[in-house]
From TrEMBL:
Keyword DNA-binding annotated: yes
Organism: Siminovitchia terrae
SMART domains in UniProt: HTH_ARAC
Alphabetically ordered keywords of this record: DNA-binding, Transcription, Transcription regulation
Superkingdom in the source lineage: Bacteria
Domain HTH araC/xylS-type as annotated: residue spans: 96-199
Signal peptide interval: none
Record's protein name: AraC family transcriptional regulator
Length: 201
């Protein structure tokens, strides 16, 4: 959720490489929800917001122009946080234990490089693949496979910068061949592994 004078919006998760340039003068107040948390405010799967930008007033009962004026009239950062928190608390839903579980699943993905397939999560959490896919679609906005791939690609960047062998790296990440690894890497990073390695020599 992004507040800026005259252009406030809610941005769903971006499944493709994206670049946001901030320049000149101005103020922005942003809210980054933990995985699954914004589902509480949506009456539909969060995947409907993936790669979308929508109006804040579509999900919160407020006059956005008036709210922006009140928010940016405040000089103190802490006061800005308070007024945004009050907005979120107006329609605060009941606690959803599924959000907690999904954060455990995502933490496992983030901190365990051995997780390269959805089946690894199925084995560790005892949740069926179909249920995981349904929950990720409903709460996160992308598939569990996408989340795994995204974090493994970030790890791949570090290994490439250290001079890792591309073929071995692809195998370690669960790919059957280097071509599929290269395709996924370019989709996430914007360059092929070889181009990235060359630019970082």
């Amino acid at each position: 959720m992004v507040f800026q004078p005259g252009n406030s919006y809610i941005c769903g998760i971006e499944s493709r490489k994206s670049v946001n340039i901030l320049q000149d003068q101005g103020q922005i107040v942003g809210v980054l929800f933990r995985p699954g948390a914004f589902h509480c405010y949506v009456q539909a799967p969060v995947s409907t917001l993936t790669d979308q930008v929508v109006n804040i007033s579509d999900y919160f009962n407020l006059d956005i122009n008036t709210f922006e004026e009140q928010l940016f009239a405040l000089k103190n950062k802490e006061e800005k946080i308070v007024i945004v928190e009050q907005l979120l608390q107006q329609s605060m839903p009941e606690h959803d234990k599924t959000v907690d579980l999904l954060n455990e699943v995502i933490d496992k993905i983030v901190y365990n490089a051995d997780i390269t397939k959805v089946e690894h999560l199925v084995d560790q959490f005892g949740i069926s693949k179909r249920t995981l896919q349904r929950w990720f679609n409903q709460y996160i906005g992308v598939s569990p496979k996408w989340v795994i791939r995204r974090y493994r690609m970030h790890e791949a960047i570090e290994l490439i910068e250290r001079g890792a062998d591309m073929t071995q790296l692809a195998m370690d990440l669960g790919y059957f061949d280097q071509a599929h690894f290269s395709k996924d890497f370019k989709a996430a990073i914007g360059k092929s592994p070889k181009q990235y390695a060359k630019n970082n020599d």
